[in-house]
Every structure is written in C-alpha cells, then in structure tokens.
Amino acid sequence: MDSVKADWICSFFKVFSLTKTLKIIAVSLLTASLPLAASDYGTVGLIDTPTARMSFDGAFTSTAAIQGRTNSYALTYQATPWLESTIRYTGYNNFKYYDRNFGLKLRLWAEQDYLPQVSMGIRDLVGTSEFGSEYFVASKKIGNLDISMGAEWGRLAGTKSIYNPMRVISERFSKREKNVLGSESIGVLQPELLFSGEGISFFGGASYQFDSLPLSVLVEYNPDQYNFEFRETGWRPKSRWSIAANWEALPGINLSISRQHNEEWGINLVAEFDTKSPAPRKPKLLYKSSLDIQKENLPIGLNEDSWYDLFLFDVEKSGLILVEASIDSSTQLATIVMGNSSYQMWVDAIDEITQLADLHLPMQVKQFRVVIEEEGHRVHSVYIDRPSRNSLRHNHVMRLQPIVGPVENLKNPQHQTDFYQNKVFIDANFSSRFQFFDPEDPARYQLYLKLGISAPLPANWSLRGSYSVNIDNTFDEITRKPNSALPNVRSDVARYLSEGDTGLDSLFFEKRGSLSSELHFRLFGGVLEEMYSGFGGELLYQPYRSRLAFGLSANRVQQRDFDRSLKLLDYKTNTSFASVYWATPFYNFDLAMHTGRYLAGDDGTTFELRRTFSNGWMVGLWATFTDVSAKDFGEGSYDQGLFLKVPLGMFSDRNVRSSYSTRIRPIQRDGGARLEDFSGNIWWNLRGVRYDALNGSAKRVTR
C-alpha cells in the first residue's frame, strides 16, 4: 500500500469507527489540512446519475457521499475542457467489500441555442465492473432549470427498458460478463464489456437554481436495480426517484442532503479547486534596503563599500539566492547567477533580482545576464536591459521582456557566495502519513513530529534528511501479510509503518549540476527513503528549445530494516532506466516513458502523463507494464495510480514556493516498483524553467 502524508486526503476514504473518524479529523486540523470534500459518484451530475455538464477546465474536485449503505469517496479532474476523469472508492457498511474504479466522461458537443450539450461516459474503465456502466446523456438549460436525459448500459441499465441497439452492429454486444472478484482481469481494460448487455435503460432528472439564494434543488430518475447489493443482502430500492437540496456554503464548497429511493438519507460534500488559476501575487514584507540602513546597523562582516555584499544582503532578504556575479567592463554586461526559493513563477523572481541589481550594480552596467540555477542545474540565460533608476524608485509598473538563451560557459566569476559556511537548515513541524486501500481498513494514519535537515556542502554537494517521531498512529492494527509471488520490495511497507513508527526517513548526500546548458546530472548516496538505502545517479539531455529530452538513471540499493534504523536486510538489487520526455503542445500536458529494470527484477516500461500550470499545480496519471504476468502481480494486474503536486503558497499569505507531492495507488504490489524520487526526476524538477514555460510567462506584470 502506498504511503502518503497529505493531510486533507484522509477525508476521501472511509474510516468506519466514530473514534477513528474523530482522530483523523484532529490530525487534519493539527497539520493544516485542506478543506474536506464530498459528492455522489464524483462526476458532475445530479444525485447518483451523471449529466452532460462538466466543470471548468483544470478543476480538481474531491468528493464524499455518506449514506446508510455505502460511503463513497472520489477525486475528479477536468483534464481538458471536454474530458473529465474520476477515481472513485466505495465501501459497503452492511458487508465487508471495497470497490475501486476509474471513470471518464467525454463531451461530444457543447450546448447551443436549440441543441443540448451531449456527453458520453464510462464509469468503471479498469475496475471490478461492479459499478461498470456506459452512457450517453444530454443536458439543456431553460432559464434556471437544467434538464438531463440519457441512456445507460451495464449496471445502470437496471430494468432494461429496450433491447441493446448495439446488437445491430454485432451479437457480441448482447451479453455482458461480470468480473469474478479476485480474477486476473480486475484492473485490466476490457473493451469487450463496453456498451454490451441484453438491454439498456433511460435515466434523467433536473436541477433548479434559485436566483436569490446559494441553493438548488434536484430530482432524478435512476433505473439502477442494485443487483450487486441484492446478491449480498437481498436489498432493492423501493423507488427509482430521489430528491436533494444543494447548498453552496462557500465558493467551491457545496453541501447537499438527499432522500434517495424514498428510504435512505445521504449527505454529500464537494470541494473544488482551480488548478489553472494564475499564481497569486502576495504582498512582500516591507524591508529597508541596505542603502537605507545606517552602516553601524549592518551585519558584522558585511563590507558596505562592496556592491556585491550589499546586493547579496538585499537579495537574501527578498527570498532569493545570489550564487555569483561578474561584470565585464568591455561589454558593460553583468552576469548574475541566481536561485529562487520564494516565488512560484520564475518571471517574478527574475523581475525582483533585476530591480535589486539596478539598485546596487555600478552605473556603467547597461545589461544584465541573469543565469537561472534551478535545483543546482544551470538552465537558461535571460538577457534584460537595465531598467532606469527612476522607474524603480517610483515603483513603476514594468513588463519583463527578456531574451531567453542557453547558458554560456561561465569561468572565474568575480564574486561567489559561500553557501556551506553557517548554512545548516533544520526545521521541525507536525506532519501526517496515510495508507490507503488496505482491504482490512481503507485508511490508516499517523501523526508525527518531522525533523528535517538540509546543509549545503563544498563542491556543490548537499546533505538532506528527515527523522520522524511518532505521536499517534493506527498502523499497529495491520494484520494482513504480503502474498506476492515476487520479492516483497513494496508490499511489506506496512511493517515499516508499524515497526518503524519512529525512525529515520532519509539521510543522503546529493550533488546536482550541469555539464552544459543541455546536459544535467545528479549523484546521490545514503538512506534514500523509508525502505531502501543505496547510491545512484541520473543524467538528462535537454536540447535547447526542444520539446524532447532524454535521460538515464541507475541505482544500487539494499532493503532497510523494518525499524527504520541504519540496519539493512539481505535483499539487494539494481535498477536502471532509459527515459524519453515530451513536452506536448496540448493543454500543458507532458509525457514521460521510462524503460528498464524495477526493484523486483522485472523489466518493463512506465508511462507518465502530467498536466502542469505555472501556479505550481501538477496532476497526472501513470501506468507500468512489465514482464510479470497479471497472475503473479496479483490484484490490480499492473502498477497504476494518480500523481498530485499541490503548491503550498496557495495557503499562505507570503510568497512560498514549496509544494507537497504524493502518489496515490489503488493498490500497492511488488511488480513495477521503483524508487520514485530517484528514477528520472530531473526533467520534472526543471519543469518551471523549461524554455516554453519561461518564455510563455515572460510578459507577466510583476508590480
């Protein structure tokens, strides 16, 4: 099972006892969680049935629906203006069963004056098919009334109003085979099931939005006969009609109460985030420039007669990093190498350091060459004509219009910042860790104190690490043992979470750098993560202005002891990957393909698809296919899941560039397992300073 620490995600998955629910809520509050989320099936719809409507492009919606029989939780992402994707998880209260499914909805055309909006959807693309259904649905708005009608195959066909019209194409559509729980086909796309079955049914409903109130009422007709529940408990719905009232409590937060099938109540909560919104401009803390501070009040050791010392003093106060600087008197060009630890968008960071350079550098300098150093890699040079001193003094609105070019070979800089003297950073904070999808309990948690260390070292090396001190957790309740046919390279992670609730998470040395503006490297060694120690490296070739890049990575690792000490177990292995990256021109989507050997010794390929925005949001999917058979892999058939990167600056009133990243798996097995943070990551780390990303945001107004 995958281990993640996002505080707010725990609300997506059911914890059945009241005591445990209250504990998880407390954990979320103590660790500054995001709002909770909820809804029906996760997709845009009425109560249980879908509509043709979609959220705005880039909407990320978390949903939860609490009913007497089931508790459903989902993540929905509006991947494009016309494509909605949903990962959903349902637990039954009357018997022990949890269902995972992945759905898509495709808009065929938008609403017009006399035509409704029409969409096609699939509710369970690679799940058990217990909730499997396909549908076409049309929606038309008449004033405040939005009416939807559709036709359904599969589970939603219910009473089978008419024969399946797909039988005209082929008789193979006349029969719909159900998955047998535990079979090898679970988690595998089965196109032969789509739009098949003896008959189809019709569904529909309407919603009415009040003008003067943040309130709407909904009514739906749902022909679902709940055959799965009937087989398990003998229950069938009394009525096909349901009603609900939906209240928009806050912008993006909706709460609804429903009366379903005239016999049970439901509570639904929906939280929607805009991953596409511009990065917020946060007001900077007011501070005096070094030129406005009396000399006796400047830090000891700062040379007030050195433009570099004064420049460095102000740059560090602004939240940026000044690595080195030089002035070429013959060309009147100043070269400034900078890093960025505060501004979500690099264009804002460049604008800030440009104005500080204009304040401090000698007047003979006419142009700045700002060299971007991201995560230790020197990527681009940005040439900027020096802004006038007057426009800076009067806080004039300026537009950054840089010329972006490759990094030239920079030798013997006149001034360098000594980062490894008195630059050890230690932080401590409350954090939380969650484990999802264990068949015995779909959500377990840990609240712990996290101690982190980061120290720059000579020759561009650094030391990074973290240590966890347990406060409270439920991992000691785990009794399920790994049953993998492969080496237990990931499936025994539960032992690390229970036996090593307090211990060393990581402690490793790392060196990053660039051999040229197109060739970047990374070396590392030590305790790499909670399960493995070892060493390795990565190389990335990124041609200038190219949408294609190529990489190599390799690791030699040994499994750690379960108590997360420095002791090691016997299992050793090598992993290596050749990677190809493509920055597609479509909707900010990036595609990566990694081919090589995984932790369990299996060979195969991982496909990653991510959508990234300049505000720091990154949402994506991955799937890994190796030479391990579905039978040997076990439940799920292949490794798959969701990737999330959430910018933490959206929850702060200051400029904060840090983010939280996590991977969420439907189920953790041993096939296709790799060291996620040490196997092809440089390209993703440099996403914010890629040529197309930097050039596309170059005209951002920063004042």
Explain this structure to me?
The chain folds into three domains: 36-274, monomeric porin ompg (Porin), CATH 2.40.160; 290-417, GMP Synthetase, Chain A, domain 3; 433-448 and 480-693. By secondary structure, it is mainly beta. The protein is built from nine helices and 33 strands. The strands form three sheets. It has a 14-stranded antiparallel beta sheet with strand order 1-21-22-23-24-25-26-27-28-29-30-31-32-33. The two termini are 46 Å apart. The radius of gyration is 28 Å and the shape is globular. Strand 16 (333-340), helix 4 (346-360) and strand 17 form a beta-alpha-beta unit.
- Assembly classification: single chain
CATH architecture of the largest domain, by name, is Beta Barrel
> What's the CATH topology name of the largest domain?
Porin
**Helix content range:** 10-25%
Number of strands: 33
What is the number of helices? 9
Spatial separation of the terminal alpha carbons: 46 Å
Rg value: 28 Å
Protein traits:
globular; Porin; about 10% helix; 3 domains; about 700 residues; mainly beta; GMP Synthetase, Chain A, domain 3; 14-stranded antiparallel β-sheet; disordered C terminus; about 45% strand; 33 strands; 9 helices
